[in-house]
């Protein structure tokens, strides 16, 4: 892993902040965050796609697959930006 310690610390900080997002956060946005988080922490998808009767896990797997090939560093940066955007939107609508 070649990303900077500062980026990793900021990523972990925003992973904690993501837990404070309002319940009104759309499933689409939650899935984007999930995919970026998995890509940042694990890398490319390493499991088979869940079956059709497991829609929740299938949607999460698809979100992860959608960012396949993205470097872990880029996934961390994108995740941080997405969390910031969602927190700003939540603050603006509060």
TrEMBL record:
<dbReference type="InterPro" id="IPR014352">
    <property type="entry name" value="FERM/acyl-CoA-bd_prot_sf"/>
</dbReference>
<dbReference type="GO" id="GO:0006631">
    <property type="term" value="P:fatty acid metabolic process"/>
</dbReference>
<dbReference type="InterPro" id="IPR000582">
    <property type="entry name" value="Acyl-CoA-binding_protein"/>
</dbReference>
<keyword id="KW-0446">Lipid-binding</keyword>
<dbReference type="Pfam" id="PF00887">
    <property type="entry name" value="ACBP"/>
</dbReference>
<dbReference type="InterPro" id="IPR022408">
    <property type="entry name" value="Acyl-CoA-binding_prot_CS"/>
</dbReference>
<feature type="domain" description="ACB">
    <location>
        <begin position="7"/>
        <end position="92"/>
    </location>
</feature>
<dbReference type="InterPro" id="IPR035984">
    <property type="entry name" value="Acyl-CoA-binding_sf"/>
</dbReference>
<protein>
    <submittedName>
        <fullName>Acyl-CoA-binding protein 6</fullName>
    </submittedName>
</protein>
<dbReference type="GO" id="GO:0000062">
    <property type="term" value="F:fatty-acyl-CoA binding"/>
</dbReference>
<comment type="similarity">
    <text>Belongs to the ACBP family.</text>
</comment>
């Amino acid at each position: 892993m070649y990303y900077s310690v500062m980026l990793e610390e900021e990523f972990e900080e925003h992973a904690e902040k993501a837990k404070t997002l309002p319940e009104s956060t759309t499933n689409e946005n939650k899935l984007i965050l999930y995919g970026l988080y998995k890509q940042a922490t694990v890398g490319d998808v390493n499991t088979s796609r869940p079956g059709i009767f497991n829609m929740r896990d299938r949607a999460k797997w698809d979100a992860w697959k959608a960012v396949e090939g993205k470097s872990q560093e880029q996934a961390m940066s994108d995740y941080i930006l997405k969390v910031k955007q969602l927190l700003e939107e939540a603050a603006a609508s509060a």
